[in-house]
Write a structure and sequence with these properties.
The structure holds two protein chains of two kinds. Chain A is α/β, with parallel strands linked by helices. Chain A has helices at residues 3-16, 41-53, 69-81, 98-106, 132-147, 163-178, 193-207, 219-232, 246-253, 265-280, 316-335; strands at 28-32, 58-61, 86-89, 111-114, 127-129, 152-156, 182-187, 213-216, 238-242, 259-262, 284-285, 300-302, 306-309, 336-337. The two termini of chain B are 39 Å apart. The chains are: A alpha/beta, B mainly alpha.
């Protein structure tokens, strides 16, 4: 648990605790990402905090040892056998995970797609994650506030098999077009250290002088690009990153990165565990809940995103707390019938 | 005197027969297959003792369903290993076949039976391409299938635009979710049926024996009239069909044909593809195959993974344990072969 997570946890406990009713010790929530990735690390603490704050039996973070759909399926099957009765799952594949999600739901366990959505129709209660397109759009707008029209920007993003990636690419293109800028390069499939190091460093070595700005919309490319700008000592290129890795935060403080689009993985895990317990104790999702739509589902809840520039970076923890608190306070009345 | 001589001959015959049976029994006890059966039983006892849920109906069902696919993937590699070659494109072929079968169901509304056969035909065709290029170029199958892995997968992604096919026949998807007596997946029965057919192929047919002969010593096989190139191509076709069956089983399992079912380039299948045959005693140099061994080896690996997950062993330790198991199995096999050589049993 890093300092940020500790602070968020403490802040949320103070803000949220008075508002919940007694929960059920028999609730066992499994938070299952598609594989190991730093984005999901906050889920572990979120689950532990939720279990403590809402008096759940457990809310455990269970990571498949690698990004393999079959392994994630096998782990989910094993978790049923182990007695878990609520599942918060990042789908290894938006279509391929539907079958196992339906099987989990058939056992009576509420299933929520977290951080990424299942393709409708599925028996998932809803999907809660970052509105990735909106985050990429807002991040590009922040970039263009500095660069103005006519800027040439490069976009470094995640895996093409992740349905969010195309949404991000489209959103950056749209924001750039609206701002009179041009996306001169999109490098995708680099949300892992090795390909990110190789492709970003090679690109900047050859084309740094042709680029005015960089937008990154995945965790690892943000870290690698921030490091690359620091290494070449280039403060001319304006970069907007994503997430709250220490490397990115420090690069903002040192002036190598303009700012970052914060997401809310902690809030996803924390609120997701709370909702899973509520659903197990008899609450139901409102038929007329004000869900948003995206390319995969019509039952989407935005877990929030906010820009943190150099003026906000010291308080980014408070920014993330604020997002979670706002979402949590209204969640039950907005989305649940209890 | 004559009677006595006959009695004596009969005694000698009985003694020889008994010795033969003893040697056969000893060889069975020293076989890979027996070793794997012992390991399966030992691990089943350990897992069920430490976690009684291991023997729950759902756990056994899930274990059978997962191992059915892993065993089929192992068979797909096994039939190429027996020629002394490798097929790194099993995953790419399996996914391409599954996507083709899914496309036939969605785009043409074909019933599942002809669509599945269409998928398997695609697997056979891609396997044939591997085989033909290998025998015509004379290059090792490692190089050729490494290249075709990217080609097959790349073409499939280009043609499908990485989109999934979800309009799968409900009967077919239902087949993948069916539970017989609440415990047995029909996918496991399919795998056992294929195992019986493969055993019959290698034990009872001249084609199977030609495949083994071509793998053991291609020159000698050629001199004895076996068309080695044709045989190798047939092995790759068979490998493609078996990969296609594994792919279609996953379609039934997930109710959709999805490009990511075997990971990037189909690489997720490589570990199960090698573990089963190698643990099962199929020689990497070719010429020897064990269908039962591959089945048991793949089952053991799947059971070990499930058991370790159930015991909540740290997810990252599972790979370590699998590696240790593989190393242990190879060392035990080495000890077994040395023992057989010392006793002049081989």
């Amino acid at each position: 648990m890093n300092t940020a997570q500790r602070l968020i946890s403490a802040g949320l406990a103070i803000a949220i605790l008075p508002s919940f009713a007694l929960a059920d010790q028999s609730t066992r929530v499994a938070l299952v990402p598609g594989g190991p990735h730093p984005y999901f690390a906050a889920w572990e603490q979120a689950g532990m905090d939720a279990a403590r704050d809402f008096d759940l039996g457990s809310a455990d973070y269970r990571v498949p040892q690698k990004w393999e759909l079959g392994l994630q399926n096998q782990m989910l099957e094993s978790l049923i056998t182990q007695g878990y009765n609520a599942f918060l799952v990042f789908p290894g594949d938006p279509v391929g995970t539907v079958a196992i999600a339906n099987e989990l739901a058939d056992t009576g366990a509420p299933v929520v797609a977290l951080a990424g959505c299942l393709k409708d129709p599925s028996q998932a209660m809803f999907c809660m994650g970052t509105d990735t397109g909106n985050s990429a759009y807002l991040g590009t707008k922040e970039l263009l506030k500095v660069l103005g029209s006519g800027a040439k920007i490069a976009h470094f993003t995640g895996f093409l098999v992740d349905p969010n990636t195309q949404l991000r690419i489209d959103a950056v293109e749209m924001a750039a077009a609206e701002g009179g800028a041009e996306v001169i390069q999109v490098i995708a499939d680099i949300d892992a250290p090795e390909p990110a190091e190789e492709k970003i460093n090679a690109y900047l070595a050859a084309h740094a002088d042709q680029v005015d700005g960089i937008i990154t919309t995945a965790w690892v490319p943000a870290v690698v690009a921030a490091n690359a700008l620091r290494k070449i000592g280039d403060k001319r290129i304006v970069m907007v990153g994503i997430d709250h890795d220490e490397v990115v935060i420090q690069a903002i403080k040192d002036g190598f990165v303009h700012g970052t689009m914060l997401q809310n993985p902690y809030g996803q895990g924390y609120i997701g565990s709370f909702v899973a317990d509520k659903l197990l104790s008899g609450c139901a999702v409102k038929a007329d809940a004000p869900f948003k739509s995206n390319a995969l589902t019509d039952k989407f809840i935005d877990s929030g995103t906010v820009f943190a520039g150099v003026d906000d970076v010291d308080n980014y923890v408070a920014s993330m707390q604020a997002i979670t608190t706002v979402l949590f306070e209204k969640f039950e009345s907005t989305y649940l019938d209890c | 005197m004559i009677a006595s001589s006959r009695d004596s001959a009969s005694d000698i015959g009985d003694t020889q027969s008994e010795q033969f049976r003893t040697v056969a029994l000893l060889r069975f006890f020293l076989s890979n297959e027996f070793g794997l059966i012992v390991l399966v039983v030992i691990f089943a006892i350990i897992f069920s003792t430490l976690s009684p849920a291991f023997l729950s109906k759902f756990s056994l069902y899930a274990l059978g369903r997962t191992s059915a696919v892993n065993i089929m993937i192992g068979f797909s590699m096994m039939v190429v290993i027996l020629t002394g070659g490798l097929n790194l494109s099993v995953g790419a072929i399996g996914v391409s076949s599954a996507m083709f079968g899914g496309w036939l169901m969605q785009a043409f509304g074909l019933p599942w039976v002809p669509a599945v056969f269409g998928g398997l035909a695609m697997g056979a065709a891609l396997g044939a391409i591997n085989g033909i290029v290998i025998v015509q170029s004379g290059l090792h199958s490692f190089i050729i299938t490494l290249a075709t892995m990217s080609i097959f997968f790349g073409v499939m992604i280009f043609l499908t635009q990485a989109d999934s096919y979800r309009e799968i026949s409900p009967e077919f998807a239902g087949f993948g979710r069916m539970k017989i007596q609440g415990v047995v997946s029909p996918l496991l029965l399919v795998t056992i049926g294929v195992a019986v057919l493969l055993s019959g192929l290698f034990r009872l047919t001249s084609l199977g024996r030609e495949m083994l002969a071509a793998g053991a010593n291609p020159q000698a096989a050629e001199l004895s009239g076996i068309r080695v190139n044709r045989t190798i191509t047939l092995c790759h076709m068979l490998s493609g069909v078996l990969a296609g069956i594994a792919g279609m089983m996953l379609v039934a399992r997930t109710g959709a044909a999805i490009p990511s079912m075997a990971g990037q380039l189909g690489q997720d299948w490589l570990l199960p593809a090698f573990l089963g045959p190698v643990l099962g005693g199929t020689l990497l140099t070719g010429g020897r195959v064990s269908v039962l061994g591959t089945l048991l080896g793949s089952f053991l690996v799947t059971m070990l993974t499930s058991g370790l997950l159930l015991m909540q062993v740290g997810a990252f330790w599972i790979q370590t344990y699998l590696g240790l198991l593989l190393l242990t199995a190879v060392l035990i096999d080495l000890a077994r072969r040395r023992y057989l050589q010392r006793r002049k049993l081989v």
